[in-house]
Backbone:
């Protein structure tokens, strides 16, 4: 595969991971949070090991343009270094 394909794979993997983390937030809040009528769901902060908060911060970080660009760069670099050199 070419370097460009590896860059797409790297950026896509970051997007997929961020999207999955974001999709898991409602499940984590209903599983680990406390529902308070009229307020919503209260859950522990990420710093104290809150699962929902960890998923929220992961999604927010990985769904940024900077994180996708880093993933694409690392994917492209992996593709470039993994190529065979012609003899």
Residues:
């Amino acid at each position: 595969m070419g370097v460009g394909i590896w860059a797409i794979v790297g950026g896509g993997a970051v997007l997929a991971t961020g999207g999955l983390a974001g999709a898991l937030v409602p499940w984590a809040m209903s599983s680990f949070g406390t529902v308070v009528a009229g307020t919503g769901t209260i859950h522990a902060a990420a710093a104290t090991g809150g699962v929902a908060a960890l998923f929220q911060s992961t999604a927010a970080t990985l769904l940024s343009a900077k994180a996708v660009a880093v993933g694409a760069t690392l994917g492209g670099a992996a593709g470039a270094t993994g190529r065979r050199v012609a003899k």
